[in-house]
């Protein structure tokens, strides 16, 4: 019965939005019956360097739909997940549209917090999405989000510093280590900043050794196989040999500051930091000094995790029609082109890559093939919960309290506790 | 005032009950009824407070106790989100949660660090507070200035202090390491090494806790009659003897209370740990309450039942400590 009501409501909503937006795609929202109105609250998670551009873009929706007010709220990445869950679970204060990290989408969807977007206006030209990006929006056969941007980790390097030390851009962690030695002897600076506080940065090392967190097909935990331990020992070796510096807290800011101030020559980072890095004293007047290369390979292969952001509608939103329309706008080719031009973020639409300004963007030129090769993470509701055990063990291993083998074992044990039907 | 009112009510009630029950002699009113009729006025007076406390303390407490015996988590509690109506599907699991917690090393690790953290914070802030109070209890130039300055940490909102300390502690850009660098000493990984992180959180908490101790001790010191010191001086007692045999016993009632209070506060001192290190590096500085928070707000799906069970255990621990502490004091002749 409830389902019946929901379906009727959905059809009614569809009919209304179809009426409002039929015809001209860039239409001003229409002036006759069924036009969109009210407020759309949008929680954005972009960082300090990016948020100005995003706010401007979000507000651009008001020009298309003059009766809709966009309430733009920037929620720091670190708090966004918990904040959304508090609001959504407690049924008060949740936004209409939320920018969710790719690994949050299934989590939120499995808890019933998100509205399915299949057959709504939100999923406009869905064939245009990169298959990899689209994969992160699905849960149990339904689509719960529209991909907004896709990314992966890469090696950011300071061209001048590498040149001064007479080293080539490293393609493996072994080369990072030897390059760091030369950099240290030439300038006294450290080679690499290694994020010791964020489990996400364990993944390139793990994939590099040919390992993975889980085998979702065979329902098997694979992180505690020898590759997982090897990944830890590579990280620890970089820190112990002074090729890398690390922190157990405040890593994001420390890394960005160390890199843009020239205290370290290299860092593993993603496109979200391009804008911030370019504002630093090493790159501000000399943007070409910033080099980006594929994440270094481990002993088996090169592999960086696929990341990115999706746009999802809160199931309890009082203004779902406007929310769908807003998602459609924010993931449209035009807006994606704009975010690429202003922030060097990667589009999720294949068509946008054909636009000249996007094609010519240096960062896109680099990141596009990197993203194409990036490793997909397990798209399961627990995907986000997989990080906490890594964080705990990462600290133990890097501080020498635990061996790499013990560390990998610890993660595996935690995963088996978390994922009941995995062996 | 209150006593007088009570008595008059007692008299009135007695008269009434005698009149009212005139035709059934021999049968005395029930005990409950008697207390109710005798003290109805007092009950009426406290009723609003009892109701409010029942709603804001009692209900969550009972609810927490109940949740801790179930397997409730974010995925199986009842939710109404727009068109999605999700019914509750959690069920009772008896004492399984407690059994799981108590048989897991995590609890005992966290408990032992929480005890170390509480004892060292309270001991240090008490000692410092007492020392400063003793110094400030003398007549010295600018005394009120010093008193104001020492209260300052208490006047600043805790999160502001903690964030300021976090900036000071930053390993690469922080002021503390810059100072050490100037002195030719290697940078200390304040918040990045488990041991240093523990020292750091204790330092910050002591810094925040000293003003409270200082004020309480100062009050205690001023209540000790000056004649005692004069008499002791006449008897030839030196400064240490005076401190040992007059000041300390004179402060005992105040001291025992503030130690208990600050022990409970520190045991549950969420903001300092959470804002300074988030329980890190790893889980080195995680105390029981920050772990309970982690269970119900950080892990996914949020483990409400587990978190509730941790909460109940924390409450039980604190109750036991408080009762034992009172007993110990009573044995020493304190009335508390």
Automatic annotation (TrEMBL), chain A:
GO terms for molecular function: maltose binding. The keyword Ribosomal protein does not apply. It comes from the Bacteria. Residues 1-20 form the signal peptide. Keywords: Signal, Transport. Pfam families: SBP_bac_1. InterPro entries: SBP. GO terms for cellular component: ATP-binding cassette (ABC) transporter complex, substrate-binding subunit-containing. This is Sugar ABC transporter substrate-binding protein. The lineage of its organism: Bacteria, Bacillati, Actinomycetota, Actinomycetes, Kitasatosporales.
TrEMBL record, chain B:
Keywords: Cell membrane, Membrane, Transmembrane, Transmembrane helix, Transport. The chain crosses the membrane at residues 40-62, 115-136, 148-168, 199-221, 254-276, 304-325. It is found in: Cell membrane. GO terms for cellular component: plasma membrane. Residues 111-325 form the ABC transmembrane type-1 domain. PROSITE patterns: ABC_TM1 (PS50928). Its main location: membrane. SUPFAM superfamilies: MetI-like. GO terms for biological process: transmembrane transport. It is a multi-pass membrane protein. Belongs to the binding-protein-dependent transport system permease family. This is ABC transporter permease. It comes from Streptomyces venezuelae.
């Amino acid at each position: 019965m409830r389902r019946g009501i929901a379906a009727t409501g959905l059809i009614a909503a569809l009919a209304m939005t179809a009426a409002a937006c039929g015809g001209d795609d860039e239409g001003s929202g229409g002036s006759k019956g069924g036009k969109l109105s009210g407020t759309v609250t949008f929680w954005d998670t972009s960082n300090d360097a990016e948020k100005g551009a995003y706010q401007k873009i979000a507000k651009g929706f008001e020009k298309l739909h003059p009766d809709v007010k966009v309430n733009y709220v920037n929620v720091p990445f670190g708090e966004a997940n918990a904040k959304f869950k508090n609001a959504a679970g407690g049924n008060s204060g949740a936004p209409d549209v939320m920018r969710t990290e790719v690994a949050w989408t299934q989590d939120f969807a499995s808890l019933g917090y998100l509205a399915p977007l299949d057959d709504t206006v939100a999923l406009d030209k869905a064939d245009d999405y990169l298959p990899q990006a689209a994969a992160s929006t699905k849960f149990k056969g339904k689509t719960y989000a529209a991909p907004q941007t896709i990314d992966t980790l890469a090696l950011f390097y300071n061209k001048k510093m590498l040149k001064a030390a007479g080293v080539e851009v490293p393609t493996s962690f072994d080369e990072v280590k030897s390059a760091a030695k030369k950099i240290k002897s030439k300038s006294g600076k450290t080679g690499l900043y290694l994020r010791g506080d964020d489990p996400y940065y364990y993944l390139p090392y793990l994939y590099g050794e040919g390992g993975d967190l889980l085998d979702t097909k065979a329902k098997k935990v694979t992180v505690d196989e020898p590759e997982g331990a090897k990944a830890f020992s590579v990280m620890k070796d970089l820190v112990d040999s002074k090729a890398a510096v690390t922190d157990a807290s405040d890593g994001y800011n420390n890394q960005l500051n160390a890199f843009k101030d020239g205290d370290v020559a290299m860092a593993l980072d993603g496109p979200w930091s391009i804008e911030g890095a370019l504002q630093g004293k090493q790159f501000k007047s000399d943007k070409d000094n910033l080099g980006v290369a594929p994440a270094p390979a481990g002993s088996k292969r090169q592999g960086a995790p696929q990341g990115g952001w999706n746009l999802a509608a809160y199931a309890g939103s009082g203004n779902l029609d406007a929310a769908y329309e807003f998602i459609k706008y924010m993931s449209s080719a035009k807006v994606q082109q704009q975010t690429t031009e202003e922030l060097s973020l990667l589009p999720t639409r294949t068509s946008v890559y054909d636009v000249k300004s996007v094609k010519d963007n240096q960062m896109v030129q680099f990141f596009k093939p990197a993203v194409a090769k990036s490793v997909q993470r397990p798209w399961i509701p627990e995907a986000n919960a997989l990080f906490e055990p890594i964080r705990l063990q990462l600290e133990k291993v890097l501080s020498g309290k635990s061996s790499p083998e013990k560390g990998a074992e610890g993660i595996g044990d935690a995963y088996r506790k978390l994922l009941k039907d995995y062996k | 005032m209150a006593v007088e009112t009570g008595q008059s009510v007692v008299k009135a009630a007695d008269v009434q009950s005698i009149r009212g029950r005139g035709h059934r002699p021999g049968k005395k009113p029930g005990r409950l009824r008697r207390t109710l009729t005798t003290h109805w006025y007092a009950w009426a007076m406290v009723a609003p407070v009892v109701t409010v406390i029942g709603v804001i303390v009692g209900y969550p407490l009972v609810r927490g106790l109940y949740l801790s015996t179930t397997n409730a988590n974010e995925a199986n509690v009842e939710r109404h989100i727009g068109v999605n109506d999700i019914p509750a599907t959690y069920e009772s699991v008896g004492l399984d949660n407690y059994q799981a917690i108590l048989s897991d090393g995590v609890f005992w690790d966290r408990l032992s660090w929480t005890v170390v953290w509480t004892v060292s914070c309270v001991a240090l802030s008490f000692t410092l507070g007492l020392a400063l109070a003793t110094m400030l209890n003398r007549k010295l130039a600018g005394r009120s200035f010093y008193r104001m300055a020492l209260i300052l940490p208490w006047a600043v909102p805790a999160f502001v202090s903690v964030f300021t300390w976090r900036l000071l502690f930053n390993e690469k850009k922080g002021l503390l390491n810059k100072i050490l660098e100037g002195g030719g000493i290697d940078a200390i990984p304040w918040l990045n090494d488990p041991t240093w992180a523990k020292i750091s959180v204790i330092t910050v908490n002591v810094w925040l806790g000293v003003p409270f101790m200082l004020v309480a001790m100062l009050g205690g010191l001023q209540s000790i009659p000056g004649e005692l010191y004069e008499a002791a001086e006449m008897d030839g007692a030196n400064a240490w003897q005076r401190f040992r045999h007059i000041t300390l016993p004179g402060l005992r009632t105040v001291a025992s209370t503030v130690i208990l209070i600050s022990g409970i506060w520190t045991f549950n001192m969420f903001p300092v740990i959470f804002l300074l290190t988030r329980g890190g590096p790893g889980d080195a500085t995680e105390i029981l309450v920050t772990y309970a928070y982690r269970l119900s707000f950080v892990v996914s799906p949020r483990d409400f039942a587990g978190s509730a069970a941790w909460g109940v255990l924390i409450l039980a621990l604190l109750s036991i400590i408080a009762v034992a502490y009172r007993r110990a004091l009573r044995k020493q002749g304190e009335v508390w």
